[in-house]
């Protein structure tokens, strides 16, 4: 059986935490901006750290597993 949990969590977090898609921290004019489709170096760094922290929580602490087949 193949474990699709880590793959699904990684893809879902990557899409949700893409800077500028749903939200951007820090924004250009405010602390948090929603749906502006712009990025900056600082927002890329913040979203990268958020992604790393959440992927560690879901894969190492909670141990999400999804077996198919």
Automatic annotation (TrEMBL):
Stretches that traverse the bilayer: 48-68
UniProt key word Transmembrane helix: yes
InterPro entries: DUF3339 (IPR021775)
Name of this protein: Uncharacterized protein
Record has Membrane as a keyword: yes
Pfam families attached to this UniProt entry: DUF3339
PANTHER family: OS05G0103400 PROTEIN, TRANSMEMBRANE PROTEIN
N-terminal signal peptide: 1-22
Domain of life: Eukaryota
The entry's keywords: Membrane, Signal, Transmembrane, Transmembrane helix
């Amino acid at each position: 059986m193949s474990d699709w949990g880590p793959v699904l969590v990684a893809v879902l977090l990557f899409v949700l935490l893409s800077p500028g898609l749903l939200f951007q921290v820090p924004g250009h004019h405010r602390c948090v901006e929603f749906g502006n489709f712009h990025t900056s170096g600082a927002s890329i760094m913040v979203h990268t750290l958020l992604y790393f922290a959440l992927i560690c929580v879901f894969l190492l602490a909670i141990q999400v597993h999804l077996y198919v087949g």
